[in-house]
Amino acid sequence: MEGSVGYDNDLNLRATELRLGLPGTEPVSIVRSNKRSLQQVADDDCGVNGCRSDDQNETAPPPPKAQIVGWPPIRSYRKNNIQTKKNESEGGGIYVKVSMDGAPYLRKIDLKIYSGYPELLQAIENMFKFTIGEYSEREGYKGSDYAPTYEDKDGDWMLVGDVPWEMFITSCKRLRIMKGSEARGLGCGV
Amino acid sequence: MQKEMAYSFPDEVLKHVFSFIQSDKDRNAVSLVCKSWYEIERWCRRKVFIGNCYAVSPRMVIRRFPEVRSIELKGKPHFADFNLVPDGWGGYVLQWIAEMAGAYPWLGEIRLKRMVVTDESLELIAKSFKNFKVLVLFSCEGFSTDGLAAIAASCKNLRELDLRESEVDDLSGHWLAQFPETCTSLVSLNISCLGSDEVSFSALERLVDRCPNLRSLQLNRAVTLDKIANILRRAPQLVDFGTGNYAAELQPDVFSNLAGAFSSCKELKSLSGFWDVVPAYLPALYSICPRLTSLNLSYATIQSPDLIKLVSHCPRLQRLLVLDYVEDSGLEELASSCKDLQELRVFPSDPFGVEPNVSLTEQGLVAVSLGCPKLQSVLYFCRRMSNAALVTIAQNCPNLTRFRLCIIEPKTPDYLTLDPLDAGFGAIVEHCKDLRRLSLSGLLTDHVFEYIGTYGKKLEMLSVAFAGDSDLGLHHVLSGCESLRKLEIRDCPFGDKALLANAAKLETMRSLWMSSCAVSFGACKLLGQKMPKLNVEVIDETEPPDSRPESYPVDKLYIYRSVAGPRFDMPPFVWSMDEAVKILH
Q1: What angle do CA B147, B148, B150 make, to 5 degrees?
Q2: Minimal C-alpha gap between B4 and chain A (Å)
Q3: Size of interface A-B (CB pairs under 8 A)
Q4: pLDDT tens digits for range B11-50
Q5: Positions of the region Disordered (chain A) (predicted)?
Q6: Count of CB atoms within 10 A of residue B77's CB?
Q7: Strand B47-50 vs strand B109-113: parallel, antiparallel, or unpaired?
Q8: Chain A residues touching B463 at Cβ < 8 A
Q9: What residues of chain A lie within 8 A of the CB of B167, using their CB?
């Protein structure tokens, strides 16, 4: 029978090796690979007396622990759920929504990838194609109609840049680029 | 004289009597009594259950049972859940829907498990069945929210829409808005599998508002905690509720609103969902905990102390699903608080980690077995086990009907003695005389199969991995387990001998799955030749099995009994060992 699946020449060669290892002594398959590499023993009694252990492996260093397909037997949606949680706890990313007054839709950015305010503001400027202006502690952002603000843990809207960076990324819930008079109000003489 | 007896009851009377017979088994028995009973019964059978969609063809079902109103179909083998069945294997429902559309205009219920359901299938359902009431898609895939929109829009009297554990292409949340304003009949809605960021929440709220009979509602992860109160206040009659994500910053007004909403649900007995749990919000549940019989916390990554606190408020708990964060200490608390417990499932929080990340061992399960005499169903993932513990569990819980133990590292021996766990599992099958389902793990020799064959007389489903020494093991099971219906085996040294010696047994079973074992291609061909009532299918994604010598083991093998002959929808990597198919090719 001819199948329409393409066959890899490599696998054909390996298949003629005829080595069948004890289940579990070798990683018998690779996660997410469509092609399983089967290694088989040249053993006439294979299938009748069972498989003999692979002597070759006893002296070799133990292979790195490879994931066996379908083991442990957990559904993928459970695995995904656990993975997500792990990423979050290992600090996988602090994603916050970024809105800009007048823009039709929001964006999302990962605060963790920036090392400080200049980088963050540069990225936002590029994202929404505008300029923010220069920050000063006293007067906020001068030189443009826009002011970058954020909502903090207490639900208050703050000007970006006032607190140290580390404090900012842990307390920022979302970002909003304010425009016009609202922006000016925030910048002036707090 | 005898002839008169046969006609003494008019058909209508028999029909009426038969209408009280609901179970499939009994109906099948009735149909075997005599020809006239067979005829009457087949005309009044309303519900059909088909455990393997390839065991019979749609046409055959329709021919025998012309007045079906409810159908249940299962597709892929169970190991598909763990990615052992390649994509495209089969299990398509479209052909069934197409044929039933013509034959069963009054079909009201379709329940599918592990089948491929396309939007086209859903649209066909929506178009074809005027009285459609129940759609359950359990672990299905292949459809999108567009298909759901068709169902929502067309099915005027929809009662149940349950998508549990299915994979849905979530294109938009607006399908929910397709339920017409006139649809007030919903009793059960489970959308927990939907992944979208935005669920049309306002549409959901309005739907809940106008369905006074809604008893069961499972939201998806995208629904935030602050929205729960709104939903619950609109549906205080709920019996079964699944939250979305259960996380928010602790705010007193949100908390009290939530607690109040929960307490207004006087019928609420079952809870699930609980993604991303913030422990501080768990006390909001305390008012309903005394009534809870079922709690699914298997997504809740909360630690043992919080779990203990919650569980100690639920004395009526019958069913608990939880992550191994519960630890032995949590299970000990469970054992002392929840005397009605019937089902326990403990899932691993870090299945691929090499070192244990939590203090959950065999002790937890032993404690539960001691404290919960009604325990019937166990699914337990752990990293160590002992024969002594298993023997204790078996003696404490002779009423177990389902026992699935997964020791995470394959071939792990008894951690105390380093022996295989044969004796422990042997005790389980010996003491638990009603055991119907068993999953094995750990280091196991042929002996465990000897015990299973000897004692497992009621065993219907057996799952085996990385176990056994030789064909003798498989032979014990096939020759001893009288009630066996489903057998699934992976990575075991079972070969031709046991399989060929017990070929006839396979016709008494629904199916046999064997992957990474030692069954040769030649044996598969022989089975296919000798057993025309079996479909013997070899799965190999790398190359055709006949391009290698006959003594080569096949990669994966799926054998199932069928009256429909070999199937026509096999993908290129599945080969039928049926002689007829070979000739056609």
Answers
A1: 65
A2: 59
A3: 131
A4: 889 999 999 998 999 999 999 999 999 999 999 999 999 9
A5: 46-66
A6: 23
A7: unpaired
A8: 73
A9: 77
Distance CA B108, CA B133 (A): 5
> How distant is the Cα of B93 from the closest Cα of chain A, in angstroms?
22
Nearest residue of B to residue A14, measured between CA atoms: B542
Domain boundaries, chain B: 6-45, 508-584
Chain B residues inside the 8 Å CB shell of A70 = 79, 82-84, 490
Radius of gyration of chain B (CA): 26
The CATH class for the domain spanning B6-45 reads mainly alpha
pLDDT tens figures, A31-64: 333 333 333 333 333 434 444 444 444 455 444 5
pLDDT band at B5 (very low <50, low <70, confident <90, very high): low
Plot region of B389 (φ>0 → left; ψ -120 to 50 → alpha; else → beta)? alpha
The answer to whether residue B411 neighbours chain A at the CB level (below 8 Å) is yes
Structural domains of chain A sorted by starting position, each given as residue range(s) with its CATH number in brackets: 95-183 (3.10.20.90)
Residue of A nearest to B584 (CA): A1
Instruction: Judge: A70–B83 Cβ closer than 8 Å, yes or no.
Output: yes
DSSP string for residues in B293-358: -EEEETT----HHHHHHHHTT-TT--EEEEEGGGHHHHHHHHHHH-TT--EEEEE-SSTT-SS--S
Distance, CA of B108 to CA of B558 (rounded, Å): 32
> Which residue does chain B place closest to A76, by CA atoms?
B82
The ipTM is 0.90
Q: Do B542 and A71 touch (CB under 8 A)?
A: no
Mind listing the pLDDT tens digit for each residue in B294-352?
999 999 999 999 999 999 999 999 999 999 999 999 999 999 999 999 999 999 999 98
Q: Which of A126, A118, A133 is nearest to A165 (CA)?
A: A118
Instruction: Determine if residue A26 is left, alpha or beta; phi over 0 gives left, psi from -120 to 50 gives alpha, anything else beta.
Output: beta
Q: Is B205 on the interface with A (CB under 8 A)?
A: no
Two tokens, residue B420: 């295989």
What SS3 class is residue A174? strand
